[in-house]
Request: fold
Amino acid sequence: MDPQLPAGSPLWDGHSPGDGAVYTRICPLAQAAAGAVGLMGPSQTFWSATAPVATVDPAQLAQQALDKMTLLGPDIANPAANGKYLIGMPMWMWVHESTTTYGPNSASASAGGVTVTAVAKVSRIDWKMGDGSAVTCNGPGTAYSASYGKQESPTCGHTYSSTSATQAGGKYTVAAIATWTVNWHVNGGGETGQLTAIRQSQQQVAIGEAQVVR
Reply:
């Protein structure tokens, strides 16, 4: 502690200032647990004849490295952004890949001579289609082009069976929920581990039906 407590303080535990020093140990909480960077956990104040040796938790450094990354929800592709999809027609779902929306993304954190490097990448995307159905895709999906015609996506797709006319704004809200897998290791060898982060993005899609002219 700076300044040290005056002689006679109960925290000296019966010792004199010349016998050692009074220390305060404070443990920072990880962002995932505390909900914000910089929040501090429980503290402990004690006397010691020698300076305590600080221990480093690699898993906490890994969380700090994760907190440094800018991990966002999926960058949803929408080839019909200004028009409508049709019921009964296969919809192709895919995302644009970047370091912040799909990975890989990396960062490091250090303390007490220990450095941990973490690498994050999306391992799956869970799509909630707005009509009560859900689709899980283990990859970014396949980009659609006109040459595919009315084929179904080979990797990630959905076919609507009802229009979005009764929805708010006449559109379904599609949510893409990305699971980021974060693998970390202590630089120079040693402990390794894995964390998970969830990020989400949404998009509105209009689903209509083909009109038959007689």
